[in-house]
Specification:
Fusion Protein Consisting Of Minor Coat Protein, Glycine Rich Linker, Tola, And A His Tag, Chain: A, Domain 2; four-stranded mixed beta sheet; two-stranded antiparallel ribbon; single chain; 24% helix; alpha+beta; 4 helices; 238 residues
Length: 238
C-alpha cells in the first residue's frame, strides 16, 4: 500500500534539533535583555562634577574696626583732714547705752496689751468648735445635739421648698446637684457655689438654699467665724 505522506517532508524527523535551536535563541535574547545597559546623557557643564581644587581662591577682604576707648578710671578725692590745734577744746558726742539694767522698771502683765488675732478663714462645719444653730435648735445643750438638729432641719427645709422644674421634667433632666454655701459671721447665707448636670437644676437648688433662714453663727475659739456647709440635692423623675 502506498503511504499518503512523503517521508522526506515529515517535520517530526528533526524536531529535537529545532527545539534546541529555539531554546538557544530564547536564552540568548534573555541574556541580552538582562545585560542591556543605558546611561543618562552627560552634561559637560555639570557644576556638581567640578573639582573644588580647580576653583580660583577667594580673597577675603581685610576690614578694620575701631574699638571704643576704655573708660577712664574714676579718681576719688581723698577726704580733707583738718588738724586742730592743741589749745582747741573738742567736744565729742556722748553715746549712752540702751541696755537694760537693774534700775529699769518691769512692766506689769496687766499693762501689756495683746492684739487679738482675727480669724477670717472659712471653717468646714465638721471642724468648727461650735456649729451654727438652726432656728428651732436652740434647746439643744450639747454640740452633738446641735449638729444632729442642724442636719435634720436642713432636710426638712429641702423637702418643704423642693419643686421639680417643669422645664426639667419636659426635657427629662435628672441628676445630683452638689451645692456649697457659707454661713456668715452675722448668720446670713452667702457665697453659694454649685455644680450639676444642667443649669435648670442648678438654679432650683440655689433657690432652695437662698430661702434658708438667718442662723446663729458658728464660733471658733469663742469668736464668730464663717462656716461652710456642703450637701447634695438629687433630682429624680418617677
Amino acid at each position: 500500500m502506498r503511504p499518503k505522506k512523503n517521508p522526506q517532508l515529515d517535520l517530526r524527523k528533526n524536531s529535537l534539533l529545532y527545539f534546541m535551536v529555539g531554546m538557544t535563541f530564547i536564552l540568548l535574547l534573555t541574556f541580552l535583555a538582562l545585560e542591556w545597559k543605558t546611561f543618562d546623557p552627560k552634561s559637560d557643564w555639570d557644576i556638581g562634577q567640578l573639582d573644588p581644587n580647580l576653583l580660583p581662591d577667594e580673597e577675603v577682604p581685610i576690614t578694620f574696626q575701631k574699638l571704643p576707648e576704655p573708660p577712664k578710671p574714676k579718681i576719688q578725692t581723698p577726704p580733707k583732714i583738718e588738724i586742730a590745734d592743741d589749745e582747741d577744746d573738742i567736744v565729742e558726742p556722748v553715746i549712752e547705752p540702751d541696755d537694760t539694767n537693774q534700775d529699769t522698771p518691769v512692766a506689769e502683765v496687766d499693762d501689756i496689751k495683746v492684739e487679738e488675732e482675727e480669724i477670717d478663714e472659712e471653717i468646714p462645719i465638721i471642724s468648727v468648735e461650735n456649729v451654727p444653730i438652726f432656728p428651732g435648735c436652740e434647746g439643744e445643750t450639747t454640740e452633738k445635739g446641735k449638729r444632729d438638729c442642724f442636719q435634720e432641719m436642713m432636710k426638712k427645709h429641702i423637702r418643704k421648698n423642693f419643686r421639680y422644674p417643669e422645664v426639667a421634667q419636659e426635657m427629662g433632666l435628672q441628676g445630683r446637684v452638689d451645692i456649697r454655701f457659707t454661713i456668715e459671721k452675722n448668720g446670713d447665707i452667702g457665697n453659694i457655689k454649685f455644680r450639676g448636670p444642667h443649669e435648670t437644676l442648678e438654679n432650683e437648688a440655689t433657690r432652695i438654699i437662698s430661702k434658708l433662714p438667718t442662723m446663729t453663727p458658728g464660733k471658733q475659739g469663742g469668736k464668730q467665724v464663717k462656716v461652710t456647709y456642703t450637701l447634695p440635692i438629687t433630682f429624680k423623675l418617677n
